[in-house]
Amino acid sequence: MNLNRLTLIIIFLIITLITARSDENWNAKGLELYKQGKYKEAIACFDKVLKSEPGAYKVWNNKGNALYKLMEYEKALTCYEKAMSIEPDYENAWYGKGCSLTQMKRYKEALECFERVLELLPGDKDGEARREEVIKALSLVDTKKVEEFFNRGNALYVQENYKEAYEYYNKALEIDPDYIDALYNKGCVLNQLKEYEEALRCFNKVIKLNPTYSNATNKKEMLLKTLESSFSLEMVRIKGTTLENDKKFITIRSFYMSKYEITNKEFCRYNVQKVNALDNMPVVNITWQEAAHYCNWLSKKEGLSPCYGENNETGEITFLGLERNGYRLPTEMEWEYACRGGTATDYYWGNNIDDRYLWYYENSNLTFHSVGEKLPNNLGLYDMSGNVWEWCNDRHPSGKSFVIRGGSFLENAESCRSDYRGSLSIQQAIDIGFRVVRNVP
């Protein structure tokens, strides 16, 4: 074995061991702070672990427990579900999820969780006690009052008095949050009121409670198409998945990605001074920060929550999290998943270079080209390989630069592979542009 290669392997193993030990220390410190009732400080420790080890399902569970103590039940629920997506039979996560759902008065779902706990740990006293508590809560639900509110909502709906109908469906759901017909009708009312994203949340919950509820599935699909028609950009809906990587399960949520790289024409609406080329060319010489600013501008334009915090004094940009519904740059994982479009080959069309799909060094005449001139991938996305590099949301593992993906008209074929990772510090270049994504509600 080459001596330099052996040295690199040894260095890599040492760094890996140091990182693992550091993660163990932060988790232990977080657990100690949790015992002391310092839940916010504990969460900060758990977050340090999860930043370097996102597949640490027990740490996700620990974070969920701390959020539960802070009575942030929705956030706790998200953490428990994250733990379960990595380790589906982790009984502590099922228990924590059940407790959170109980606090949110979602008793039917909570009951399913505690029953799962008892399948995994037969005779568990805490699981049995919680199950009995939920069964008792379900028996106290005032079904007569629920039906009264529901029927009143239906009468108002028929009269096209949607705002009052909404109030009565809400009253029914306050008593029984899992009343599926009230949830569905509430979604229909919100659709009429053009509150599309809130309507989608109702239909999503109906489908989660009963996957065979076909009306909700059909309404959701119709509503997504309505929502998509209102987008400022042409977007492609990309269905989420769960991937296995090094024996860890990683979930990618459904998201939209812009069909093309952002063009001069589109960017000009935000910053006319920045553009100096033809309308349909990809905008280039864009820094990562400028791309993030554009995402925020587009989010505000459509009434969405911006994904980046902007400090006007320092110019610092802070990513606010994947849960925001606004536009953002794709994570590196989202980018590659979308680029591959279900393929496992070197490029999304096969293992050999094919000029029909990309602009690169050999065929570009050393200049970028209008978007959409080459063939798309299986998902209908254009120029995912070649033409211009695209900024991703992630920093390079070195921490000193942001990731760029896709290769460019100045690069060789190797740089245009689906799995190739480039990096650049926060600056601009003639062959770097970007495209945007946003979550599917």
Structure write-up:
With 441 residues, this protein is α+β, with helices and mostly antiparallel strands. The chain has three domains: 3-139, Serine Threonine Protein Phosphatase 5, Tetratricopeptide repeat (Alpha Horseshoe), CATH 1.25.40; 143-229, Serine Threonine Protein Phosphatase 5, Tetratricopeptide repeat, CATH 1.25.40; 259-439, paralog of FGE (formylglycine-generating enzyme). It is built from 15 helices and eleven strands. The protein has a four-stranded mixed sheet with strand order 9-8-7-10. It has a three-stranded antiparallel sheet with strand order 1-4-11, with no helix packed on it. The protein has a two-stranded antiparallel sheet with strand order 2-3. A hairpin with a 6-residue loop joins strand 5 (308-310) and strand 6. The longest helix is centred in the first third of the chain and has 33 residues, at 3-35. Mean pLDDT is 89; it is low at 10-20.
Describe the secondary structure blueprint for this structure.
Blueprint: H1 3-35, H2 39-52, H3 57-69, H4 73-86, H5 91-103, H6 107-120, H7 125-139, H8 143-158, H9 162-175, H10 180-192, H11 196-209, H12 214-229, E1 235-238, E2 241-245, E3 248-252, E4 255-258, H13 264-268, H14 288-301, E5 308-310, E6 317-319, H15 332-340, E7 389-395, E8 402-405, E9 421-424, E10 432-433, E11 437-439
Parallel strand pairs: 7-10
Antiparallel strand pairs: 1-4, 2-3, 4-11, 5-6, 7-8, 8-9
